[in-house]
Write a structure and sequence with these properties.
3 domains; Dipeptide-binding Protein, domain 1; 5-stranded mixed β-sheet; alpha+beta; 19% strand; 541 residues; 6-stranded mixed β-sheet; D-Maltodextrin-Binding Protein, domain 2; 19% helix; Dipeptide-binding Protein, domain 3
Length: 541
Amino acid sequence: MAAAMVGCVLATAACTGTTSSATNTAGGTLKVTAGASGPFTDNFNALIASSSSASGFAAYAIFEPLLQEDFGSGKTRPWLVSSYTWGPDGKTLTLKTKEGVKWSDGETFTAKDVAFTFNLMKANPAFNAVSLPLTGAEATDNTAAVIHFSKPAYQVMWWRTETVPEHIWKDVQDPVKYANPNPVGTGPYMLKSFTPQAITLQKNPYYWQAGGNFSTVQYLAADSSSSMIANLQSGGVDWIGTAGIDGATVKKLAPNTIDYWNTTINPSVALLLPNFAHAPLDQLPVRKAIDIALDRDEISKIGTAGLNAAVESPTGMDVKTRGDMIAASYSDQKYGKADPDTAKKILTAAGYQLGPDNVFVSPNGQRLDFKLTVPTTYPQADLFGMTRVMVPELAAAGIKVTVKSEQQQAYVKDVEMGNYELTMRTNGERPRCTTSITGSSTNSRSAPPPERGPSSTTSGTRTPTHPLCLARMQRRHRAASRSRAPSGRSRRSWSRTCPGCHWCSPAVPECGGPIGQLAGRRRRTRTPPRCRAASTPSWSF
């Protein structure tokens, strides 16, 4: 998902952000629009994947994961868990929780909360967005939780689990339907007020980390990227997150008040996903044909305006920075140009016939005519922009695709309920600082200078309320006398799974295998497990 200020724009390979420093002095209010998802929904159930986007991603400032991922170094940072140990068979995970952490209501955070949360996930499959093979969990004391799995679970993203307080949730009758209107978390902020147009957070007095934060963060709703940018330009918002917009382009709108910079590499993979419940997408020749018909370079150059570089390896990993982690059987494989002729040959060999309207028909009479459901705007990638290249490329191979563009909340609901044929999403990661756009304030005080770093190859962001982002922004506000953006552009990478190997994304359980990967790298050293077909896959944002 990116960052900035009118004052700062935070952007990723898939999005950008912006802020304004007119009123954002230390201890002041930061106004944020993290994505164009329309009016907010009053749901802060941290265990429901769609609730974060429905609440404008404000939940990321209230709840925290067990570990934080640092994609620049390829490592994880201790967060609510200070250390962890796997059993020899990969079926037992012992977590050592950090001491001194409190919930925002003042109660002590313990390993019992962690065990309780994993047991909630086991009892309620709707909470288990990454398909952890859970069999149970228990706390052996206040600082140690043991999680049990039915099979080795090294590769499944347990560390992204956002813990909920047992002392509150144990009395909830229906956890899945619970909207959690007064959320209690361990994050730097807590809910102050809610309306469909604005979510206001105030500083958590019990937060366990030191450092100066804005005393108030306000999330403002928006319906489109253009309205977000206009609001930034007018000073109505300090920080925005928009997908597929070059920071340099936004800067030109108000060069004296908006600037941008790049921070560390933040890999992610955007996926083109089939719903196996909709034949003939359950047929391998169809998925192979779709895979071969798409041109990653063209999608990168045209679909993302050159903001994202095409990934070369079918694994989705950057061969320059992660080449040593690619299995030998895939190390020499490279993607080429779109090959519609080969795609047609694959379909013809499987018994498909090209109709008079240049659309293939299956032996059972089913036309290769699919709807591709995507969000109008998406905080991790410009998925809609990519479809403008994909649709004609697939048409050249005899595959008709019609794009169904929806607001974020409608899109999430349709995907979670399996109401789609093809869809796109990123496999995501914890929000993090990536490309930022900053600017000076309207009262002529200059915006903070950027921290220089490598070009971003990302599709996810750290939300502006993340304590590291806030502390960095405040240091810049206090010390800045002038601002200059570094050279280099935010890049996103595009990759694809190999045609014969349809793998599950860790964040997309039982997806039936992604056809394509966009915008990112995989840190995987083993051959991924094969997917099981599912009509209602679950997405985790």
